[in-house]
Amino acid sequence: MKKNYRIGLVVPSSNTTMETEIPAMLRWREQVDPNLSFTFHSSRMRMKHVTKEELKAMDVESDRCAVELSDARCDVLAYACLVAIMCQGPGYHMESEQRLFNATKENGAATPVISSAGALVDGIKTLGAQKVAIITPYMKPLTKQVIDYIEASSIQVTDSISLEIPDNLEVGRQDPMRLLEIVKKLDISQADAVVLSACVQMPSLEAIQLVENEIGKPVLSAAVATVYNILKTLDLHPYVPNAGKLLSGDIISKLPIKEENYNG
Asked: Is 15 annotated as a binding residue?
């Protein structure tokens, strides 16, 4: 008998990639194990331009989204805007995840909550990487805040490329295969791993495995890390084919799980 899991997605209103890449990876997971099935359920927060002001205003709406999704009795919620978390200061993903979990609990449907921001930090550490090089679609000041957030988590960012695209819809229209050329401009010589897209809105899935094969170092994205944490939270083997080292099934996280969040 198939086991179905309901995946709740807390999504910026202008995001068009979260609901394509994450379902795509979990569809690939279904092909590996026909006894699994996933359905996807979204609630949206208003945001059109990737500015600190809009991101902070959007984050306030995440509580409403978590409550709405808990009405559907999702098995896990994923807050899918990395920079909205990271622009609010180091460690904020833990505060956000706990607050949203508490909102679902108060609604009578305690649901584990992960964030793409927390997932990316966890994913880098799970790979055993201490130094990373990253690509973002953000303006340089926001990329700097992402770097500061990652480095506050004891991970060194050795190099970065900012594509400086302020319109979030335009970010979602980027061709992921362009990353094969963009990454050639990134200095990866000192990096243990590469974050090909430090943003769940910038498409990268088609390029992840290709770039990893080319450079010989682990390659991940915010979306890949989010799927890893979704599978781990559901107590499923974190394997998705052709999605890079983190989802190869060979890497098992030893990071502690927050008991309050995950056990309710």
From this structure: yes
Identify whether residues 68 and 198 lie together within a single domain: no
Residues 157 and 97 in one domain: no
Determine the pLDDT at residue 50.
67
Q: Is 81 a catalytic residue?
A: yes
Q: In which domain, by residue range, is 23 found? A: 3-116+224-247
Tens of pLDDT, residues 148-186 = 999 999 999 999 999 999 888 899 999 999 999 999 999
Catalytic residue among 65, 74, 81, 87: 81
Please count the structural domains in the chain.
2
Query: Do 110 and 229 have their domain in common?
Result: yes
Of the candidates 65, 74, 87, 199, the residue annotated as catalytic is 199
> Is 200 annotated as a binding-site member?
yes
Q: Does residue 112 share a domain with residue 8? A: yes
- pLDDT given for residue 259 in this prediction: 42
Instruction: Identify whether 158 is part of a domain.
Output: yes
242 and 208 in one domain? no
10-residue mean pLDDT series, the chain (264 residues): 93 89 97 95 83 75 93 95 83 92 96 96 97 96 93 97 92 96 98 96 97 98 97 96 95 57 41
**Residue 232 · residue 198 · CB < 8 Å:** no
- Is 107 annotated to bind ligand? no
